[in-house]
Description:
Pfam families (chains A, B): Pyridox_ox_2
CATH architecture of chain A: Roll
CATH topology of chain A: Pnp Oxidase, Chain A
Organism (chains A, B): Mastigocoleus testarum BC008
Protein name (chains A, B): Flavin-nucleotide-binding protein
Helix content of chain A: 10-25%
Number of domains of chain A: 1
InterPro entries (chains A, B): Pyridox_Oxase-rel, Split_barrel_FMN-bd
Oligomer: homodimer
Largest sheet of chain A: 7 strands, antiparallel
Radius of gyration of chain A: 20 Å
Amino acid sequence: MNTSKKQIDSEKLTPTQRSQVKRVPKRGNYERQVIYDILDEALICHVGFIVDNQPFVIPTAFGRVGDKIYIHGSPASRMLRSLSQGIEVCVTVTLLDGLVLARSAFHLSMNYRSVVVFGTAEIVKDPEEKLQALEAFTEQIISGRWGEVRSPNRAELQGTLVLSLPLNEASAKVRTGMPIDDEADYNLPVWAGVLPLKLVAGQAIADDRLLEGMVVPDYVEKYTRDRVNSFS
Amino acid sequence: MNTSKKQIDSEKLTPTQRSQVKRVPKRGNYERQVIYDILDEALICHVGFIVDNQPFVIPTAFGRVGDKIYIHGSPASRMLRSLSQGIEVCVTVTLLDGLVLARSAFHLSMNYRSVVVFGTAEIVKDPEEKLQALEAFTEQIISGRWGEVRSPNRAELQGTLVLSLPLNEASAKVRTGMPIDDEADYNLPVWAGVLPLKLVAGQAIADDRLLEGMVVPDYVEKYTRDRVNSFS
């Protein structure tokens, strides 16, 4: 998987009617590398789909291999049942990097990196691709885990529905930096700036039924998501 | 606003066809207080809506006042233009509390608290409600900020579209606790447990154009989102 993650061409996606960033277009980005980096840092995505003219937005874990993302779950889930019928889907990933504290309420903002992907999901039938997707799914959540845990057995593989979505129609949107205040407001006696945010891990809590002598693995002990905010 | 946040009845919402938690129903919760607590801790929501049979999922900030949530933005945004036409919307909020590290790949999971709200958004026309919504919006992001910054002026108020969504049809879904492994897997020599996660703030970065003598306010210095994970 690491190999395929490195086989990224620097290609730029072509914005479409629906993937083009319309609000504050200068924040839009269509570079594959930018899109992949945001996806790879995220723990969950929000999947949007339509059932009976009703939009649903469901949070779920995912994995990426090359130019596809994978989601998975029980074949009984409403989301997966619906998506496996080849309907249009919108998958959104959002990373929060900071609060942008301007001098006026109007210019309060956040620094973030988000990706929106459009397309049609497909059921993964090839057993090898399915296993690779499940590995990507595990490694996306916590790198190093797949090699240590029991791999899916035949019943689990058969009982898991895996869907793939191509990363052909997608855009990133990124805000960085300081607040942009109205010129007159710079004279206000108000503290302004950025408060950086990041998702951090606390101390691992062992399961009660742990075998004796098991120690917290290094990849758990040193777990971190962030590649942008480096504050400690 | 704090007053209205406290005026919560302990009423339970009635699950509907679309709001009922179908996968792992024991994790579903329809108590207003549970739903409100999750909403109030979140910095952003993901708004799902349909334009020309295409689902869109857009991340955005929001605020809550009593039994309504508010989103806002430019009247030119595709999302707000669409929603202001009274179409069906699905608003989802997700808080990640930890990685659930099971002994098999199949049982890898996350602890989370999520809320899904269904309904039809309405344009807020009453100027007082609009201002109250903008206060809620600011205070949701950083409590204490509204009283310190310049309030919206008439042009800003007119240039901001505020939409409200009633919290009548909603559900929470919560996973807590340790992994649930297959009985045989408890004998595997694999470390298992929970790795808690939370969103934390780093050190505030002052704007270059800050007036002399401005110090970081207490509510910025001591900023925290979490009400559940108390690790430091």
